[in-house]
Amino acid sequence: MKKIILFITVAVFIASCSENPKNKISDENLEIESDESGDKTQLSSDEFEKSMEQLGGLFSIDSEDESSNSELPEVEALEKLLQMSGMEDQGTKKAFQDLLTKDVSSSGMFSTEAIISLLEQSGVSRTELQKLINNPDSLQALVQEVEAKRKLEKQNEPKPKARINKEQLTSKNTPTGVSLEEAILIVQAESGPEATMAKLKTIDSLAGTNVMEKLDLTEAEYVMRDIERKHETPPTAKEEEEMELLNKLSGQLHSDKEAKQLLIDLKKTESEIASGSLKASPAYQRTIEGKAKIVQIYKNDLERKAKAAKHKFQKLNPDLYFGEESEATYLGHRRKAVYLPLGKLSFADAVVKANHPLLKTQEVKNVLGEPDVWQGFDMEDITGIHSLGLGGTITVQFTDNALTDVNGPDLYIFEIGQIEPTDLEISKDGKNWIHVGKIDGGVAEVDISSFVKHGELFYYVRLTDLKMESGLPGADVDAIAAIGAAMRLNLDSKVLFETGKSILKPEGIVALKELAHNIAVLKKGNVIVEGHTDDVGSAESNQRLSLERAKSVSNELKKMISGSSFRWKEMGLGESKPLVENDTEENRSKNRRVEVLVLPN
Fold first, then answer.
1. Is 387 within 8 Å of 475 (Cβ atoms)?
2. Which of 36-40, 279-283, 316-320 has the highest mean pLDDT?
3. Would 323 disulfide with which of 54, 402, 523, 593, CB 3.0-4.6 Å?
């Protein structure tokens, strides 16, 4: 019977899908050609309009859902038809999805051929289907049968039980002088808030009424829980603050590691409450339990996305991996998963310069570090971003890492809302710029391979807004990350060595211990130790001293990072790559340094 309902109902849709904009059905559009005889049978528009009206309630059979996000009634009906037909195999589902996304005419209606093709996926003969469609008597018989079934179901529906109002709950004008509310609290104190028929009878007995036992158990459960919460200990000010923060955190997670840590914290709090080591109000306890369930769902979804994003990245870059401790996956534009092999080290560290047409630069530091935007219902509730303004610019610097070219995207701009067009430039020194070009609306990731040489390192990124009007004028930047990243660590030579010497000082060895820890976190990679000097002395002597210092640092680091999978290289660059001009003693001090770069294999 279910398939016949499906067949004939689809016949109705085939006819109704051919309606003109004024909903008048044209007889010539109802012609369906038979494969067997080639005869054409016409069904009158009156018959179909009447049938459609009579079948109006058909699609709610066995369904509790009375709302739909679908703009077209055909979409909603076809979705329910799929459920009614029992067609659960993946091939049919795929055909259905193709139908929804592809086989829609310019008028927004589904074609006859598309619907018939969908039914054929379930093994229905095209000939049999068309015979059924071309028989108006079958349609009328179906209508009568469906109507009879619905009337019978309506007659057999249980009548709703009584409800209880506030006055009945609080009134003490009862035979015992005990209000229902008081009776409920007494019973709850003895046996908890869950509603059972025995508890309802006990409550009525205490109040001398018969009101509670007339309630449906579900309704009684709501009443009893409302009473319980009305009289429970309210949350403290600190708990209220934490609950508000949890509402924000649990709904706007930025990365897989953030989700994992939040879930650990929630589970820990749950455990402390259960053990009694943490006293908590009932409302706070319910919040912790509820948020733990929500975050668990988000965490599972994020981990699935992170796994897929990592697989895609490593397929392109099989040797680029620093280890699980450093990697992280973040949610970017439209909740896109962005895998960063260096994790939080990947993000810009300093704002070098910012220009805003309205001089609104007080929030420029919001673009630094990991994504941390918080969005509310209104634009003024958004925090953690910096809007460039129409035509505004911002220049950021990477200090503990560098942007480099890898296979696939190399740079990711974390924005909120629509990705607004910006102009992108990159630089090694903040002076000489390479123009990469326009980052178009909707695109947050950039591949710099066409503009750089492989292995080059860039420390500066400049964004210029291209003046597209929006709710918040200018690109709204949350964070800037180098996907293709290299770790960069800089040590002052005066901390490591005596003037003109290459033997490490005791305090220099202490400084290297912290450096070694940061490198060891990455597990593997190419470590390049570079020695640099100022311009005092000859170029030859400076190159020799810088190489000896690089070797001293490299040898000490190797001792501290034993059993690692790093490959080491020492370079003496002398005075050839100053950070700043050698025109003052302060600047010369900055140029006397040892840099450690950790690059992917």
1. yes
2. 279-283
3. 523
In a 3-state reduction of DSSP, which class is residue 17? coil
Q: How far apart are CA 78 and CA 104, in angstroms?
A: 13
Per residue in 571-600, pLDDT (tens digit) is 999 999 888 889 999 999 889 999 888 876
pLDDT, residue 285, reads 94
The closest of 60, 57, 77, 49 to 136, measured between CA atoms, is: 49
**Residue 557's CB: how many other CB atoms inside 10 A?**
21
In tens, the pLDDT along 77-121 reads 445 444 444 444 455 445 545 544 444 433 334 444 555 555 555
- For the stretch 165-186, what's the b/e string if a residue is b when 16 or more beta carbons lie within 10 angstroms of its beta carbon? eeebbeeeebeeebbbbbbbbe
Burial class (CB in 10 A: 0-12, 13-18, 19+), 250: buried
Question: Which of 369, 398, 396, 373 has the alpha carbon at shortest distance from 484?
Answer: 398
Instruction: Label residues 115-144 b or e (16+ Cβ within 10 Å = b).
Output: bbebbebbebeeeebbbbbbebebbeebbe
Q: Is the pTM here over 0.85, yes or no?
A: no
Determine the Cα–Cα distance for residues 553 and 549; give it in Å rounded to an integer: 6
Check residue 359 and report its DSSP letter.
-
